[in-house]
Amino acid sequence: MTRVSVFTRALAGAAALALTSALPAIAQEQGDVEAKGEGSTTKTKGEERLAKLLEGRVPGQPMSCIRSPPRDRMQIIDGTAYVYGSGSTIYVQRTQEPERIDESDTLVTNRFSASQLCRLDMMTTIDRFTGIFTGAVFFDDFVPYVRVKAQATAEG
Predict the structure, then answer these.
(1) Diameter of the chain by CA atoms?
(2) What is the pTM of this model?
(3) Using one digit for the tens of pLDDT, what is the confidence trace for 62-109?
(4) N or C terminus: fewer CB in 10 A for the chain?
(5) Residue 136 contacts by C-beta under 8 Å, 6 or more apart in sequence?
(6) Around 31, how many Cα atoms within 13 Å sit in the side-chain half-sphere?
(7) C-alpha–C-alpha distance, residues 144 and 126, integer Å
């Protein structure tokens, strides 16, 4: 085999792998569009999951940075949001293209500060299983959601 044919086969293999990786994402996007329907108010599974997570919480003022120690918990909600923290306050990050959020990807953060996560930090994603770069992520402001304490109904 010549060098050109080896290179051509390798390039064709890489293209096939890229296409194979993209097909589930394309099918998911089409399924999300069909699930929503034109003019429909049907929530996606991700929106339903986020709504359940936010039950009993009220949104606060959006913030450009949040305090984020390395051990803080992060949840990925497919096609919807990244959710940081736990307890009385959680922070929701929808990103500029939330439909591209995929829990099979790993978010790689290049922070400017060790103690804070900011909307201007550089974010990329890689496939969790292959380690292949899958995209760039552009954050919006973080929206804090605080748990509302139940008011006592006892009189007197």
Answers:
(1) 92
(2) 0.67
(3) 999 998 766 678 899 999 999 998 888 999 999 999 999 999 999 998
(4) C
(5) 123, 124, 125
(6) 11
(7) 27
